Amino acid sequence: MSKCLFNDKLWGWIVLSRPSFHTVGILPFILGTVLAWKLSGTFQITIFTLGILAVILIMLSTYHAGEYYDYEGDVISQRLFRNRFAGGTGVMQSGILSRQVPFWTSLISLLMAGVMGIILQFYFKTGPYTILLGCLGAFPGFYYSTPPIRLVKRGWGEVLIGFCYGWLPMASAFYIQTGHVAPVIHWISIPIGLSIFNVILLNEFSDYFADMAVGKRNLLVRIGKERGAWLYILTAILSWISLFFSLTRGVDGKAFYIFIPVILVSAYLVVMIVRQKYEDRRVLERLCGINIAVNLGITAAYILAYLFARTIIS
Q1: CB 63 within 8 A of CB 140
Q2: Are 61 and 141 in contact (CB under 8 A)?
Q3: pLDDT digits (tens, 9 = 90+) for 92-116
């Protein structure tokens, strides 16, 4: 294999694995770990490392399954307009890697995540619900695009994504460190889950016509762009409300100032959606990137709030 070909394939692997998209799962897991340390004084580096590896493997399985089973729709989407945040990576379509690659890597990643769960539960004694929590993320992720279930076409797969990237990684990280889940996690997970729901919803605008062409009946296809825009706006407003409310459930009130920049950016997105800027595909691509930043910003703000808060209520 020539050096040039090897470099192409290596780059194809990196792009296929979407490393930047792993942050939306890694940060909530880190937040759950920070909460375990701040609320219970518990932190075991080995458990944290195995847990975060399991989260990464589950996300790899999810993304690679999507690349394999959404192949036809991604071809159409990329032909209409290339968007870095939707429509697949394009690695399969470019021929850099075989189309069968993501199928097998998805299965292998899922299996390896299961091994991590077994080690955590039975060797490190992290609690009887460790594997169950892992399965709550692994199977919805794998079957988000995988037939015959294909949650993406059911109209509520987006809600499950909000759960899997909101409450679940936080609760799992806290649980494997402490053996229980603190009530404050339920409140903190709401704005994070709502924001990741909006990430998925806005990304679907780019793939709207491609998804319709291949019969991919996701939420946006079912309700249409106009209603989808209003759903995005409502979800954003609810995320702001839940964000403020969560501050009364365990974080020092001074954290309010940390969230202001994130809320302002989110408000900017709402204004752009009201002005129907999602119809401009180039603008839409920028909005999708900013939208992810809002989700990450909310999670990062909670991490900072807990690290520096003087008063903490579990």
Answers
A1: no
A2: yes
A3: 766 677 888 889 999 999 999 999 9
